[in-house]
Design a protein that fits this description.
Helix content is 28%, strand content 24%. Strand 3 and strand 4 form a beta hairpin. The chain is globular. The N terminus is likely disordered.
């Protein structure tokens, strides 16, 4: 897993998909929504839009506005690799959700309960939940990560 994680990390830093990033998500059946705490800055509009996305999907959400330095510290405490970072960090049922992860992937995660630390959508890809911009969309991946720094593809959207 380390080797795969290293190549995935390198692809994320280059900002281009690699063969390891190609594939489509397998969507699990409905799962009871968990309670989620989202840490974000007060001024980020896309974070607010993502919170609405997960609320609309049935999650109970507590959004906490924190100073940027505290947000960075929370990411570090939760083991979020800087290559996976985005503008907000959420905690739900023992998992970390970093960035604009679709609610369907969070439901799948909670249904399957894999031995990982969490899921991340690195950066802020246009067209991901909360980042909708005039119908435009770019391909993006949801990455599963573990406490040892391993990473693997969880799902992929777009080309």
């Amino acid at each position: 897993m380390k080797k795969e994680g290293s190549s995935l990390r390198a692809a994320l830093r280059r900002g281009i998909p690699s063969a390891a990033l190609l594939g489509l998500a397998l969507v699990a059946g409905p799962v009871a929504a968990g309670t989620m705490t989202v840490y974000k800055t007060a001024t980020c509009g896309c974070c607010k839009a993502w919170v609405e996305h997960v609320r609309a999907a049935g999650f109970e959400v507590t959004a906490r506005d924190v100073p940027y330095a505290e947000l960075v510290e929370r990411k570090r405490e939760q083991g979020v690799d800087p290559a996976l970072a985005s503008c907000h960090t959420a905690l739900v049922d023992g998992y970390v959700i970093e960035g604009h992860v679709p609610a369907a992937d969070i439901r799948r995660l909670l249904g399957e309960r894999p031995d990982i630390a969490g899921l991340a959508v690195p950066g802020m890809p246009v067209g991901s939940p909360g980042m909708e911009v005039g119908g435009r969309s770019e391909a993006y991946s949801v990455v599963a990560f573990d406490a040892a720094g391993g990473m693997r593809l969880y799902s992929h959207y777009g080309e």
